[in-house]
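#struct-help
A.M.: can someone run this one for me? Single chain, 473 residues.
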Amino acid sequence: MSKELLSKSITELAGLIESKAVSPVEATEALLDHAQALNGEINAYISFRPEEAMAEAKVAEAEIAAGNYRGPLHGVPMAIKDNIYVGGEVTTMASKIHGNFVAEKDATVIAKLREAGMVLTGKLNMHEYAWGIDNNSPHFGPVKNPWDLEKVPGGSSGGSGAAVAANMTFGTLGTDTAGSIRIPSAACGIVGLKPTHGRVSKAGCFPLAWSLDHIGPMTKTVDDAAAMLQAIAGFDAKDPTSANAPVGNYTGNLSGDVKGMVIGVEEAYFFKDVDSGIEAIVRDQIDALVQRGAILKKIQIPTLRYSEWAELATSLSEASAIHHRDLQTRPEDFGADIRFLFELGELFSSVEYLQAQQIRRQLKGDFRAALGEVDVIIAPTLPVMAPSIGSSEADLNGKKVDLIDSFIRFTGPSNLTGLPALTVPAGLNGGMPVGLQIIGRAFDEATILNVGRAVELTVPLGDAKPDAVEARV
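D.P.: on it. C-alpha cells below:
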C-alpha cells in the first residue's frame, strides 16, 4: 500500500485523507520511510525532521477526525527547499557560511502552508545560495536525477525536483531567479510554476537577486500546482515587492479546454538552437493543442536578443551586492563556482546595470504587446537535455555548449519581465523528460495552468517512471 500511496498526487492523497481512507500519520510515516531509504541514492534532502513531522501529522489527524478539515493540503507531508526559513530550525542555503543559521520565524509561505495544514518532513538540497543550475554542491554533495542517476537534476531547486519525481515528497516549493523552479522541473519530469512577480511573498526566503526572485510550487500535476498556489498567493506587507492584486481561483478552471485560445510562438528566439528531439516534442504538443481548437499565431519579441545579457547583468550584480561582505572577508568558504560568479558580478559597472534595466523595460513592453495579441506563449523550457553530473557543458545537436547559458536561455526572460511561467512534461527524449513552457499575462496564472492541464491530458510521459522509482516498485 505504501508504494501505491507514495505515487499519489497531492489532490489524490487529499481525497483519501478527507474521506479518512488514509490518515496523515500513515502518509507521513510512509513518505519518511521511503525518502530516508532513497536519500543515499538521490541526495535530495539536506535534513529530515521525523519527530516533528510525525507530531504535526498526529495533530492534523486529530483535527480531521474532529471535523475540522482545512482543505487539500491538510495532513499532506512535504519537504521544502533549504533557503526558505522554518522558525527555530536550521536553514543552510546549502552553504558553509550559513551552515548553522537558525531563522527566528517561519517564512510567509511556510506560515501559509502550515495554516493550510501541511506536514513538514524536512529541507531539500539545492545549489549553494540558489546560484547554479546543476545542484552539484561542494558542501552537501550532488543531487542525482531520478530518471538517470548519472545526470544532473537541474537547479538551483534540484533537490526539490528530484524529491517530487522520486516520490520523496508529495509536492514542494522552489525558488526561481533565472529558471530555478522550471529548469529542475523540466529535467525531472514534473510541473513547476513561477508565479507573477509579487504574487507570492518572498519574506523569509534568503535572496539571490531581489528584483528577480520568485517562490512557487513544484508538483506531480497541474492540479497540485494550482492547489499549492491557492494556499500561498496573496499580498504580504513584509515583502516590499509583494503586489496587492486579487488572488484568483486557480483550482476551479482546470478543464483543459483551449478552444478559441490563441497560442503565440516566437520562432526567432525560443526555437533557435534547440535540441532536435526537444523541438519535435514541443511542436507536436502545440499541434495537439491546435487540433483541440487552439489558434496558432506567430509573434515577434525583438528585445529577447538582449535578454541573456540583461538577466546576467542584473542577477550577478544583485547577488554580489548581497554577498559582498562575505566575499571580502571569507571568500574561501564559498564553493569555487559560486565564488567565481559573485566575483564576476562585482565587475559590472553602475552604467551596465542601468543599461540592463533599460533593456528590461523594453522587454516588458515587447511581451505586453505580444500578449495583447495572444493568450499565452509556448516554448521549450530547456533547449538542451540534462548532461552528466560534473559537466559544465551540454550537447546541442552534436555541438558542446555552455551549460549555464543554455539552461537559463529560455527561462530567464520571465524573471526579467516578472510574467508567470509554467513548465509541464511534454514527452520523453532518449528516455529523459522534456519540458514545455507556457508564459502568460501578469497575474493570469489561471490561464497558463489551464493550458498546462491541456498538455497534461495527452499523458505525455505515458507509463514511464524514473529509474530510481522503477527500481523500488
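A.M.: thanks! The radius of gyration is 21 Å.
D.P.: also worth noting: The chain has a mean pLDDT of 97.
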